Amino acid sequence: MYNRISTTEIDSLVEPARLHKRLYIDRDIFELEMERIWGQAWIFIGHESQVPNTGDYFTTNITHKVPVIMVRDKEDQVHVLHNRCAHKGAKLVENREGNVRGAFRCPYHGWSYKHDGTLIKIPNEAGYEGTGFDLNDACNNMQPLAQVESYRGFVFATLSSQAPDLKTWLGGAIDCIDNLCDRSPDGEVEVAGGVLRYEHECNWKFFLENLNDTMHPMVVHQSVVQAAKDYIDSLPESATRERSEAEIILPFGSSYENFEDSGITGFRYGHHYDGGKTSIHANYTVMPEYHSRMVASYGEEKAREIYSFNTHNTLFYPSLTIKTAVQNIRVVRPVAVDRFIVETWSFRLKGAPDEMLQRTLLYSRLVNSSAGMVGPDDLEVYRRAQEGLESSGSDWVEYHRQLGRDQQLEDRVVGGGTSDLDMRTQYKAWKEFMNGEIYR
User: Fold this and answer.
1) Which of 142, 232, 289, 363 has its CA 20 to 30 A from that of 326?
2) Segments making up each domain of the chain, as ranges
């Protein structure tokens, strides 16, 4: 059904400063997005530290209907394979993560595979004699994805053989992955502290639009910011720990002027970030022990240069968002036109004192958890938008802010921090993906 949506029809849904509501509520459009965006872009799968040992695996979906396995083999190579048996197509692994010491074994007919997906053995092999079946034919292996690459431990894969190499696709936004890793005295990060999974009953694009929308925090988060201020005012001067925890909330109530100064930077393929020279995380205290270790690794000047690149949210469209200053990521997993899951993973900075990880975990609990103090505010307005767009009140969603003021540079576009530049970046890419023009 969705293949009947023509290029002309897609073009009519995205105008320079407004979007048709069908983008959020039409099931056929959602299915086409899964094929042409999620099926063509580089999608974040996981981090190499999630599979540290031979046979360790992690499972997820690359689209809403394509299950995959990330696994480390005996040669220390990380693979991303389709999570299905080559025989009858049954999923090989149901667990989210684990370890397979010897081989993957299909629960249906017992076909077994090496960690790299190569078929090892089938039961009662004599039954295939004289049939033309070839155990060594690659079509009988677990199939690899079209392309798999890792950058500084971050593993991406794509179902497209036409996509450019990963570094080209990441473009200038790659600086944010570098900055996250460079904040480690050892230059490496690893997943730590488990995962927060948060189901959203709304369209996946609301979350991406909200990441660099700096017009909403002082409205949506007004009550929790005021509560944090009142709490801080009630504390004695000696309550430094309690004060530092509550201060994580305060930047969400920053003024329009402060957010404007942070700026937004957009890139090809739909990526963008707000901040750079400053962000809502810019005034975090640099812990003395952490700073001394960073200086030992990089020198004073380089360490301060690393701190000074200060972004808020970086989006690698459409699946991954990174907070470099806080050392966590959020991963988008679409389920249906009105349902998706966000996974929050925290990172340990290798070589840094444990208090840095504890700050990251605290931030995630306060901000990104379904039981937190900030994320539920956002979900409430997403839910209201999803319900409101089902009405016949209007067919359009607008994004006019600072239209015509964006500055196109060689490899990026820059604009004011309260502009809708992020929307223009995303939906330019959305249109190119949906029309099959993204890699031309």
Assistant:
1) 232
2) 43-151, 172-434
Residue 54 and residue 214: Cα distance in Å, rounded? 44
Residue 195 and residue 214: Cα distance in Å, rounded?
Answer: 26
CATH classification number, 43-151, choose in 3.40.50.1820, 2.102.10.10, 3.50.50.60, 3.40.50.920? 2.102.10.10
Question: Cα separation of 40 and 169, whole Å?
Answer: 12
Whole-number Å distance between alpha carbons of 244 and 32: 46
**The two three-digit tokens of residue 31, written as one number:** 């299915």
Would you place residue 2 in the very low, low, confident or very high pLDDT band (cuts 50, 70, 90)?
Answer: low
pTM of the model: 0.96
Q: Kindly report the CATH number that applies to the domain delimited by 172-434.
A: 3.90.380.10
Please give the DSSP secondary-structure letter assigned to residue 87.
T
Tell me the C-alpha distance between 73 and 48, whole Å: 12
Rounded Cα–Cα distance for residues 292 and 353 (Å): 10
How many CA atoms within 13 Å lie on the side-chain side of 296? 11
Q: How do strand 104-105 and strand 97-99 relate by DSSP bridges?
A: unpaired
Over 80: is that where the pLDDT of 365 sits? yes
C-alpha closest to that of 37 among 179, 164, 160, 190: 160
d(CA 243, CA 315) in angstroms, rounded, equals 30
Residues with Cβ within 8 Å of 368's Cβ and at least 6 positions away in sequence, in order, are 196, 198, 328, 330, 342, 344, 374, 375
CB neighbours of 271 closer than 8 A, spacing ≥ 6?
Answer: 170, 171, 173, 314, 315, 316, 317, 425
| 8 Å CB contact between 42 and 433 | no
Phi-psi region of 401 (alpha: psi -120 to 50; beta: other; left: phi over 0): beta
**Average pLDDT over every residue of 288-312:** 95
* Residue 164 and residue 23 in contact, taking contact as beta carbons nearer than 8 Å: no
Give the mean pLDDT of 419-435: 97
What pLDDT was estimated at residue 282? 73
183: how many CB neighbours lie within 10 A of its CB?
22
A 10 A CB-CB count for 45 gives 27
